[in-house]
Amino acid sequence: MTVEGESIEKRLKALRQRMDDKGIDVSLLWDPDNEYYLSGFRAISYSRPIVLIVYKEKTQYIIPALENDHAREKAKVDEFFVYHEKIQNRHMDTTYLQPLQRILNELTKDKVFGLELDIVPAFVYRLLQEKGFEIKDIGQDLIDLRAIKDKEEIYWLEQAGRLSDIALEASFANVKAGMSELEFDSFGDSKLLEMASKDYPDHIVGYENWTCSGIERSVMPHLYSSTRRFNENDVIIHSRQVWINGYRAENERTFFVGQPSDEQRKCLQLAIDAQQAGMDMIKPGVKAKDVDIASFKVFEEEGYGEYVQHRIGHGLGLTEHEEPYLRFDNDLVLEEGMVYTIEPGIYVPGVGGFRHSDTVILTNDGCRSITQYPRKLDDLIF
Fold first, then answer.
1. Cis (ω within 30 of 0) for the bond into 260?
2. Is 111 strand, coil or helix?
3. Smallest Cα–Cα separation from 310: which of 351, 262, 274, 336?
4. Total Cβ atoms within 10 A of residue 365
5. Which of 26, 87, 98, 340 lies 20 to 30 A from 224 at CA?
6. Strands, E, within 202-308: which ranges?
């Protein structure tokens, strides 16, 4: 299963309906994930700007020549404009602004443009203003559309979850004192790439790891893996995101090399209980904030509320962290097909950090986790 033209057409149709509802004639899109969502094409680097333009009746791509063959193979769009950076082509378009200027000059000034106002370059915004176009935000509409995953997206999310479990199992099968964080990661990396190559031929698979070991490093939630070596009686947080065809699953476990202290046991069990409270709460019809609050209460009632540093979870799909978020101040009513991480944590100085993360898909009456590596405390002592 790949990103098919039928899926792209459905997404474009939904976006165009949003455009009609807001009186938008043309959407000029900058975010790479939004472009992939609506075209099926993703580049490695966007240092050379790539612009997707969506009209009511057609789509256009402005692309660098470096991406020409790739984009024409993958992108489901109607028209391409190519700019060049070779000296041999200096008589042709050499920046994205040249074709963009021509496109804008051909449009009447009564056209209303939709932009992702949170990310579009100020220069592009100003250019449209100077030409007299009215501008409206289309970014929130894309957030809303992408928040509800279709069957194709859910399939790839499930495959990413499966691969993340395989990777965790391989790393945990080899854990021991004396190995570095990077060495621990490498066992999962190797198995992940082996299984992906075997089970998903001709697809794009990637991953990210973070392993934070020891009392001092584990209380900092976001650290890159390092050459620090595991010591006996270390507390360790291992986080892994895997993606296939762009779609991501997140899988995190806190574990111990050797025996934890009584307080470390208590803290991890609280994190596990808080995660379960979130999983029990999350379902269609519930507000996003209620999931975060239910989890926080588990920590607060045991006197650990001050050690919570972040929300319970974030949306997941094409982007590492996607809106909408599960935060105490978000009144959004959740819907079937949304995908979230459930990852409450506490970070206690002198004791350690404690967090599991699983990726869940909202079903009609609750949620199901697409990451399944064991979560119980006794399964995570090595």
1. no
2. coil
3. 274
4. 9
5. 340
6. 205-213, 234-244, 247-257
Outline which parts of the chain fall under CATH 3.90.230.10. 148-380
The reported pTM is 0.94
Q: Tell me the C-alpha distance between 291 and 138, whole Å.
A: 28
DSSP code of residue 237: E
Pick the CATH number of 148-380 from 3.90.230.10, 3.10.20.30, 3.40.30.10, 1.10.405.10: 3.90.230.10
pLDDT tens digits for the chain (382 residues)?
A: 445 678 999 999 999 999 999 999 999 999 999 999 999 999 999 999 999 999 999 999 999 999 999 999 999 999 999 999 989 989 998 999 999 999 999 999 999 999 999 999 999 999 999 999 999 999 999 999 999 999 999 999 999 999 999 999 999 999 999 999 999 999 999 999 999 999 999 999 999 999 999 999 999 999 999 999 999 999 999 999 999 999 999 999 999 999 999 999 999 999 999 999 999 999 999 999 999 999 999 999 999 999 999 999 999 999 999 999 999 999 999 999 999 999 999 999 999 999 999 999 999 999 999 999 999 999 999 9
Encoded amino acid at 45, one letter: S
DSSP letter at 357 equals B
Provide Rg for the chain, Cα atoms. 23
Q: Which CATH number fits domain 5-146: 1.10.10.60, 1.10.10.10, 3.40.50.11690, 3.40.350.10?
A: 3.40.350.10
Any idea of the CA torsion for 35, 39, 45, 46, to the nearest 10 degrees?
-40
Q: Provide the 10 A C-beta neighbour count for residue 2.
A: 12
DSSP at 41: -
Q: For residue 319, give both structure tokens.
A: 């982007």
